[in-house]
Amino acid sequence: MGAHSIKTSSTSRRFAAASMLAAGAAVAGSGAATAAPVTVDVPVELRLPGVPEQVTVDVPEGVEVPPGLVAEAVADPVEFAAPAPEVSAGQQIVDAANAQLGTPYAWGATGPGSFDCSGLTSWAYQEAGISIPRTSQAQVGGGTPVAKGDLQPGDIVAFYSGATHVGIYAGNGQVIHAPSSGTTVSYAPVDSMPFYGASRYY
Questions:
Q1: Reported pTM
Q2: What's the Rg (C-alpha) of the chain?
Q3: Is 4 a catalytic residue?
Q4: Which of 3, 7, 83, 90 is least surrounded, with the fewest CB atoms within 10 Å of its CB?
Q5: Is residue 177 annotated as part of the catalytic site, yes or no?
């Protein structure tokens, strides 16, 4: 006999029981039906020794279980939420900078109300728990040098002769930066400015 599902009540609780025909025959044959019944009112698994196959039935709470059957409590299934994927340090830096899109540029400002270029990069790194130098030249001069073709999200990218401007590589050929007076934190293509160098701190 394979597995079956028998519903007896829409308001009942589910029990796993040994093959009902086999169980009935065994109980009747043994004379156990005349014994005092056992009453259960929690989900149980009913197993008849020697009967390997089982069926699943729904029965009302408080059902009387013949003593010839073995009753064991069955715990309700516990569902666990999948753990949130771990966010890399580079992505944390990008996310912090993203949160400042539209913030105005101000020379010498380190945020969060306004930024200059290296103020934005140092602030975003600090939000990710990483301390880097304050000036653009020191930022690209520290850390691990990165070739333009090996950029990863979160890398510091410097532009123009002397590394006078920096931004944060955001992926897909884009940087997030605080451009200049009168502008706000925004995206720009890496190739829109003369590339000087790049550095990684994570």
A1: 0.61
A2: 34
A3: no
A4: 83
A5: yes
**Distance in angstroms (rounded) separating the CA atoms of residues 155 and 88:** 12
Residue in 118, 139, 177, 199 annotated catalytic: 177
Token pair of 50 as six digits: 């020697």
Token output for 1: 């006999």
Return the SS3 of 154.
coil
Instruction: Please tell me which residue, 86 or 193, carries the higher pLDDT value.
Output: 193
Sign, CA dihedral 192-196-201-202, equals positive
The Cα-based distances of 39 to 1, 61, 69, 159, 175 in angstroms read 27, 9, 12, 80, 70
Query: Tokens representing 138?
Result: 């020191």
Catalytic residue among 40, 117, 157, 176: 117
For 64-74, how does the pLDDT look when each residue is reduced to its tens digit (9 = 90+)?
Answer: 766 655 555 55
Q: How many residues does the chain have?
A: 202
- Residue 165 catalytic? yes
Is residue 172 exposed (0-12), middle (13-18) or buried (19+ Cβ within 10 Å)?
Answer: exposed
- Whether 178 contacts 115, CB under 8 Å: yes
Residue that is written with structure tokens 């590394």 in the block: 163
